[in-house]
């Protein structure tokens, strides 16, 4: 076992694009998520740790992430710097057909810190894959959020419940759930 330098975790920021703020997505939880994520991002950048931005490029016309319109662009606070990696995806999982896994392995990165949106969709899907692929994975629960959902039986679930259950699913087998202050 190597006792050499442990490479810092890569910060994986999921889908922090303008479209996620579209009113049609409905009521969300965790209004402080962007503030928490910005603090983590600043911490990573100040230390020169690797930052990876993931952008969803939808294949569905009318999507808030449809290419070529403002919703697909990164939010100003989360615009990648020139030396930060950007991966595009067309499905919730950032690892699916993106080259992300190969990019991380090529740099010796075995630890991931994941934050962004939507907790129960792209964040959960990506964190599940990260765990399944053998990455040591942390999800920054207070730097993620989701929206109210209606289940297949027509029952309304508040965003807070959807968020909590999604993080609980991840904590079972895929990732450790932390708060942003644990990283600062």
Overview of the molecule:
InterPro entries: Isochorismatase-like_dom (IPR000868), Isochorismatase-like_hydrls (IPR050272), Isochorismatase-like_sf (IPR036380). It comes from Pseudomonas eucalypticola. GO terms for molecular function: hydrolase activity. Residues 9-159 form the Isochorismatase-like domain. With 184 residues, this protein is α/β, with parallel strands linked by helices. Helix content is 28%, strand content 22%. It is built from 4 helices and 8 strands, in the order E-H-E-E-H-E-H-E-E-E-H-E. A 6-stranded parallel β-sheet has the order 3-2-1-4-5-8, sandwiched between helices. The longest helix has 15 residues, at 33-47. The protein is globular and about 45 Å long. The mean pLDDT is 95.
Separation, N- and C-terminal Cα atoms: 28 Å
What count of domains describes the coordinates? Answer: 1
For the sheet with most strands, the description reads: 6 strands, parallel
Strand proportion, as a percent range, falls in: 15-25%
| Fraction of residues in helix | 25-40%
- How many DSSP E strands? 8
- Give, in order, the helices and strands: EHEEHEHEEEHE
- pLDDT < 50 runs, ≥5 residues: none
* Gyration radius over CA: 16 Å
In the CATH scheme, what's the topology name? Rossmann fold
Give the name of the CATH architecture: 3-Layer(aba) Sandwich
How does the helix and strand content classify structurally?
Answer: alpha/beta
> What would you call the shape?
globular
CATH homologous superfamily name? Isochorismatase-like
Total helix count? Answer: 4
Specify the CATH class.
Alpha Beta
Instruction: Provide the residue-averaged pLDDT.
Output: 95
In the sheet with the most strands, the strands line up as: 3-2-1-4-5-8
């Amino acid at each position: 076992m190597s006792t050499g330098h442990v490479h810092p975790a890569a910060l994986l920021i999921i889908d922090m694009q303008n479209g996620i703020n579209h009113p049609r997505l409905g009521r969300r939880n965790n209004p402080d998520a962007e503030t928490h994520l910005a603090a983590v991002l600043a911490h990573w950048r100040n230390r020169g740790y690797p930052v990876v931005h993931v952008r969803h490029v939808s294949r569905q016309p009318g999507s808030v992430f449809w290419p070529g319109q403002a919703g697909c662009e990164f939010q100003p606070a989360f615009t990648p710097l020139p030396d930060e990696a950007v991966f595009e995806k067309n499905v919730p999982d950032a690892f699916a057909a993106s080259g992300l896994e190969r990019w991380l392995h090529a740099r010796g990165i075995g630890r991931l810190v994941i934050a962004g949106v939507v907790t129960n969709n792209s964040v959960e899907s990506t964190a599940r894959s990260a765990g399944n692929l053998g990455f040591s994975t942390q999800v920054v629960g207070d730097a993620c959020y989701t929206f109210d959902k209606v289940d297949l039986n027509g029952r309304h679930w508040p965003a807070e419940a959807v968020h909590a259950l999604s993080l609980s699913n991840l904590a079972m087998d895929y990732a450790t759930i932390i708060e942003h202050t644990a990283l600062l």
